[in-house]
Amino acid sequence: MAYELYTRTNQKLYFAGIALEALGKAEEGTAINAAALAQAERETVLFHLYGALLGLCHEIAGYYHMAGATSAQAEVFLTPEALAAAPNPQLGELVELAGNRDTWLATLMKAYGALWQPPRAPSKPKVDVTKPLIEAVNLDTPAPAPELTRETMEGWRQQLKSLALRFRDGLSEC
């Protein structure tokens, strides 16, 4: 394997593609543990997509000789402070995507972060025994996140892939 920064990004995108194929097979499967296999593959896809994002950040940081270019967390690169320290259009676009919670990149990063959270039991509403027809509901409790679909994660993979290709065109010295 070559020791160029882009090889890690490419490798992670490829691994995410393999995991997406395995996820499709697991979802179609009828094995007793099909749901567990699908969840394992879903987490594998997220792991590799995040790795591809981190690899892309390393490519940009390496090209611009940014401080902290070997950080193990993409979030370190995707801050306004990091952009201010080494302004460049590629990082600027990533910071903007990561900062807007409605974008695919922010959603990917949130889903990856959720992998590291401990499982939580759903909260049950308090019941007032004197009024059995009225149920108290806590509106501050977030609704459970919908399960990530293969199509959503494949979309993220394609977005990352196209960003990497476009950014590399801009990073090349002609």
Give the tags.
globular, 62% helix, mainly alpha, 7 helices, 174 residues
Question: Could you explain how this protein is built, in words?
Answer:
The chain starts with a helix and ends with a helix. 62% of the residues lie in helices and 0% in strands. The chain has seven helices and no strands. It has one domain (5-117, 148-171). The protein is mainly alpha-helical. The model has no long low-confidence stretch (mean pLDDT 87). It has helices at 5-28, 34-63, 74-77, 80-85, 89-99, 104-114, 150-171.
Number of DSSP strands?
A: 0
- Biggest β-sheet strands, sense, barrel: none
Distance from first to last alpha carbon: 25 Å
Uncertain stretches:
none
- Helix count from the secondary structure assignment: 7
What share of residues are in beta strands?
A: under 5%
Helix content: 55-70%
| Structure class | mainly alpha
How many domains, in number, for the residues?
1
Shape, per Cα inertia axes: globular
What order do the helices and strands follow? HHHHHHH
Which whole number gives the mean pLDDT? 87
User: Mind telling me the C-alpha Rg?
Assistant: 20 Å
List the helices and strands and how they pair.
Elements lengths: L4 H24 L5 H30 L10 H4 L2 H6 L3 H11 L4 H11 L35 H22 L3
In brief:
The longest helix has 30 residues, at 34-63. The protein has one domain (5-117, 148-171).
